[in-house]
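Researcher: Please translate sequence to structure tokens.
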Amino acid sequence: MFTLLSRSNTLKRLASSYGMATPASFARRFIAGEQIDDAIEAARALQGRGLHLTLDYLGESVTTRDQATWATREYIRLIDDIVASNIERNVSLKLSQLGLAIDRATCVDNMRRILEPARQHEFFVRIDMEGSDYTEVTLEVFETLWNLEYRNIGVVLQSCLYRTERDLRRMNELSARVRLVKGAYREPAAVAYQQKEDVGAAYLRQMRVLIDHGTYPAFATHDVALLNEIKSYAAERGLARDKYEFQMLYGIRRDLQASYVADGYRMRIYVPFGREWFPYFMRRLGERPANVWFVIRAILGERRPGLVL
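Model: Translation complete:
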């Protein structure tokens, strides 16, 4: 249902009119806005609270080379605007936005067009992970770029997939920076754990591998139990707080974000923005029904600190 709703142009127009109408509109809680200037304003506010950030210009699964070219130009413009604004130089993107589903070579070329100015201006670029159908090809593209001497890139791995522990070793051998997430996509039992407890256990196993052998790992989760385990294990292994970071979504558990900064941890906020926010928002809800409750519980959790997300 959510996927169908995300394709409705009528709902998209209504959402754009009302969801982003004012700073108090419902979508502005989770999406920085539709324009680059909106994202930069949000980024400045985050930095003012001692938070780090990564900007994500929304859009994925493009179907034509013209769309991929347009997205590439927008990311290059974003880099220029970030430099001019003097905010932190960190962006995230999806390869399907740059034409991966059309042609791998086109995607690699578009990534290189982005990475050249990014490297020149000392940006870090994180390649987001998409559904399991994209996992292997995403890692292959990442390795291609790494072998072309782009070192200002990192990748995302999803703990729910059975293959992730093997992929972690693969990335650690490169000394590549990994963001570890649980995984937001609905995946079949043939490739992924189905129970929340199994995903959490896998996350902890993989977290230990990253702390022991990774390069500046990033742990993206709002699960308080997992967060406490990460802090405890890092302290046990003597990993300094500036050698890893936590990451959370824009607008989710802002109370936790602030408390971690106050305790001296590095906290990075994933800041999505762009006109494609409505399809993004609806797809995130539709990929897993638990995402709906996740958003609701995250809002309530700020008012009830005892809630575990």
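Researcher: Any highlights?
Model: The longest strand covers residues 267-273.
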